[in-house]
Structures are given as structure tokens and as C-alpha cells.
Amino acid sequence: MAEFAVSTVLANVGNLAVQGTSFVCAVTLEVAVLKDELMRLQAYLKEAESKRRSGNARVAVLLSQIRDAAYEAENAIEAAEYMKKRNMIKKGFKAAVSRYARLPGDLTTLRKVGVKIQRVRRKLNEIFQSVERLNIDLDIQDVDECLEDYDLAHQNFEGDFVMVGFENEYKEIVNKLVQGGNMLSAISIVAMGGAGKTTVARKVYTASAVKQHFEVLVWVTVSEKFKVIDLLKEIVKQMPSDVGLSINDEMNEYEVGKKIHDILIQKRYLVVLDDVWETDTWEQINRTIKAFPDAANSSRVLLTTRKQDVANHVEMPTHVHSLRCLDEQKSWELLSSKALPSYKRSDIRDLDKFEISGRKLTKKCDGLPLALAVLGGYLSKNLNTQAWSDVLLGWPSTKDTQMMWGIIARSYKDLPNHYLRSCFLYLAAFPEDFIISVSDLINLWIAESLIPYTPKHILEETARKYVTELAQRSLVQVVETNDIYGWIEKIKIHDILRDWCIEEATQDGFLDIIDETTRGQDGAPSSHNPISYRSSFQNSSEQILQAPPNLRALFGFGLLSVSFPKLRFLRVLHVENARLENFSEVIGGCVHLRHLGLRRCRNVVIPSSVRKLLYLQTIDLAGVFRHESEVSSSLWDIPTLRSDADPGDASLSCDAGVEWF
């Protein structure tokens, strides 16, 4: 996303221009000229992005070149800024001597910065020549819209679990769970993607009659790619605290399954297996031991799937409930609840005209709740009758998934600014059906400069507005809210929306998802797409991660063991539940790093070189160390950490030097 890249670099260049008056004058002048040229680029990026979406290959190459040049400029500028940061930390006579000793090396680095910026400027001149050949209008201005100040008192995020049109199905499924015979039995909810399976299952799971009837309730999302041991461990986490069940990382499937079996044999339980894709999933979960025993106490299994054969393939008495699409009236009720929320209706003129157009649009969605919800979210942000008529006139002739993708693309394009569009694509970095902590997500967005500085608002406030905007548009599903402040605490993204994000992010070079299903024979992403500056490794069996040297963000989920390549320009490193092999050897060289996340990782050693990371803002070491004393004191020497704790007197020793180019 070239537009975002240029905006980010301009913000950092602006900071450098204010703080960098002590730098070599020639370099400062080069930076000022570079800033002017980058501002010229901003003038036509919106039109260029539109041409890329229409399939213009030459424009796509041009945008990739702009992004590359912008990030190259930022790396060079930060090299100069890093020296200033380092030299300002220590005070006194010894610090002066140290700075004097480093002066030759600093001057060499500054000369390299100047050469690098000159090279970027030459690239920009070539880009401007290409602009003229491609006839892109340089007078187009991309004015970012401001997000409204939301009154959280009017927000009803529980709408993600409120059903429209499924009331009868809900009652029927609840009755079948709490009534019937004593044998262990299953209910399978089957329907196509976006039809509301998970919504119905979640409503059933939280029903008071269900909670009162079952002693143990467990919800696990299986997804298309899963590991049995991870599912079993997730089930253990949801066991009642009074049973005293505990596990460790070394336990295998049989050991974890045996613990689950021994607890459930004594309880009436309900286990929900959401989003099951394969017919042998039940057999895989129970292959070493029958984790879900039949104690003849009316325990139940509730399963959701898109496939009829999966719904029937469970080794127990099973009732298959095929979920119907919404009828026309129920479809309108859902669309209007999103597009014309009750707290806005009093301010809407000509409400009957909106209803006429809205009912016509409702028919186009074929009764699919996800399509109706996302379209309703888009319409709620475009409350004028002409906009609704334009949607109707431009409706594609495709059905099902392609129709859904068209609705998503329209809503994405309608997002108020390129920052929010980047934030939405960023969600693809997380695995399928992953529950995303909003606080963690905000830290990642800020670390990557996805959140702009705005008057009267700190970055975290703006980021929470972004989450609210995505929720209002039904582009994310709200999982949990804060009862006191009304904030959204946890979200997830629907599989169909995530698939669209992956496709868009990959084509744009914004993000690559690398797992066993997307790799080619050489283990690399498709050569038809531009090289990405962000990579998310998921469910990979390779120990040594392959990544381009200019990578800015690296994610790791579902990896057993990880060896990191040399990544000098990394801004974000976020890995969960993996054994790290060479972390202490490479981390000291990641001097651009803003976020370090190693949640529940093993073999983690924080070296003293971590104090070189003068841009580091947030650290997530949850589940890594048992005691605070195990954490390296070098972490508290980093002055830029965004924390309520007082790090004390900062100190730094970087005499070993940093390789920039």
C-alpha cells in the first residue's frame, strides 16, 4: 500500500526536520528535498491505487516502486536519527568522551545516509517520469475523512450475537440439547459460509437453559487447519477452575486427552466444535484416547460445518440441522437494523425512500446474513438515497462468494482513509478464527505507524475509534466488550472477510501469509505478487524462516521451533507458542524494532544487546518467565517503552556498532 508507506515516511521526516538541526547540513538539506518530493507523490496516489484495482499492471509496478523508495528513505533517515538518540542518552564527561570516540564512525554513517537519500531521489525522479507516461493526474488530492466522535452509549455491539430470522432454529436446537435420551449425541448445524451458523451456535451456547443444564461447557474453533494437541489444550483451559486440571508444554495428545476424559466422565458436558471442515475431525481428536466419553448422562456435542458429509460423519447419534437462508422480510429486518439503526432514524429524512431502495438491495443478498450485515454497515455510512440507488445500479451479476467479495470490496474502498484500510488488511496476519485482543492489536498498529497523530486525541483513542468503525461496518465481529467503558476488548474476523483481506493484502504487497497450503515447490510465496514487507508464518514445519531482508513485520503462529534470519529493518516481531533457537543472536541487530512479542515462547534469553533497541515501544512476554527476576534488566534501559512503570535512569552502550546498509 504505497499511499500508506509515503504518509508514514513523511510523518517521520517531519519529526527529523524538527529534531535534526545538529546533523550535517548537507544531509539535512537532502532530507528536506526528499520530503518535498514525497509530498508530490501523495497528490496522485489515490488515482493510481484505483487504476491498480482495475488491473493496470504498469500502475501496479509503479506503486510497488513508490512503496520501495519510501521505505528505503525511512530506513536511511532512521539511521541518522538513531545516532542522535544514542548520543543523547548518556550525560557527563564519560559520555562526551564516548561520543568523541564514535565520531569517525558516525560521520561515515551520515555519508552513507546522504548517498542513500540521493539514490532514493533518483528513483523518485524516474517514478515522476513514469507518471507522465501513464497519464496519472497529479492534481488529484486524497483528502482523508475524519472519523466521527462515537457516543458509546448508543453502540450495541451485542448485535453480533443477536439473531434475526433464526428464532425457531434457536429454540429447536436448545430443546434437543437439554432434552432427549441419556446417550452422548450430537447436533450438526450445516450451511454455506456467511449463513449464520456460528451466530446461532453462540446464541445457543450462551442460553440460560443450556448453562443451567450442563455442568461443563466448552467452545473450540476447529477451522480448516488445526492441530489436535492445540485443540485439546484449549479445552483444558476452559475447564472449571475447581477441578484442579493443569497441563504443561511437554504433555502429548494421550496425556492431555486422558485428563479431559477423567474430568468429563464425571460431568454432564456440552462441547461445541465450531467450523469443522474434515470428516475425520472427530476421529483425530479421539485417536489416542476417547477424550469425550459417553457416561450416559445426557452430554452433548454441537458441531457447525459448511459440508453435509462432515455433519453426518460423527460416531454417535446425530441430528443434522440444515440452516435456511433468511426470507425476504427477515432479510430486510437485518439489513435495516445495520443500515438504519434506531438511534439514527429520528435524524433521517425521507425514511420511506430509503426503505424502497433498501428492500430492493435486500433481495440481491439471497438471504445471507453476512452479506446483509456488511452491506448494511456500508449503507449506514452513506445515508443518502442516491448512494443507495448507485449500489443497486452497480450490483454484480455474480452469486454466493463472488457477490460477497464484491460487497466487501465496496465497503473497504469506502473506509474513510488509507490508515484504516491498512488496519483492516492487517487483521489477515492472524490465523483463521483467532480471537484478537484489541489492546494487543492497538500496540501492533501503533508500532507500524498505522495510526496517525490527530489533534485532541492520543494514538490509543484514535485506534479504538478505528476498531469501532470496523465493528459498525460489520467488518469485524465483536467477541467481548468492557462493561464499564463500553470499549471493544476482543474481536475476530469472519473466514470470508479474512480470505478477502489475504487476497487484497497479497496482491498489494502489504502482507504475505505463509503456511503449508500457500507455499510453492520452492517454499516461497507466489512470484506473481510484489514482494511483501510483512510476513505471517502459520502452521509451518520449517525451522528456519525464509524472509526478504527488508521485512518490516514478522508474525509466527503454530510453529514448533523457529530460527530467525537476519532482519535489520524489522519493526514488529510477534511470535506465539514456539521454541526460539537463535533469538539472542539476532535481536540486538533489529534496531528499528517497535514491538517485541514472544507470548508463551520457550528457550527465550533476553541478551544485554536488547538495550540497543531505542525505538522499542511495547514488549509482550506473557507466559515466558515465571518470575520478574528472570527478565533482563536491560529491558528497563530502553527509554521509549510505552509503559506505566518508571524505567529509572536509562543507560546505553552501543560501542559494538550497528550495521545499517
From TrEMBL:
Residues 5-87 form the Disease resistance N-terminal domain. SUPFAM superfamilies: L domain-like (SSF52058), P-loop containing nucleoside triphosphate hydrolases (SSF52540). Residues 430-499 form the Disease resistance protein winged helix domain. It holds the Pfam family Rx_N. Keywords: Leucine-rich repeat, Nucleotide-binding, Plant defense, Repeat. One of its GO terms (biological process) is defense response to bacterium. One of its GO terms (molecular function) is ADP binding. Gene3D superfamilies: 1.20.5.4130, Helical domain of apoptotic protease-activating factors, P-loop containing nucleotide triphosphate hydrolases, Ribonuclease Inhibitor, Winged helix-like DNA-binding domain superfamily/Winged helix DNA-binding domain. Residues 167-341 form the NB-ARC domain. Belongs to the disease resistance NB-LRR family. This is NB-ARC domain-containing protein. It comes from Triticum aestivum. The lineage of its organism: Eukaryota, Viridiplantae, Streptophyta, Embryophyta, Tracheophyta.
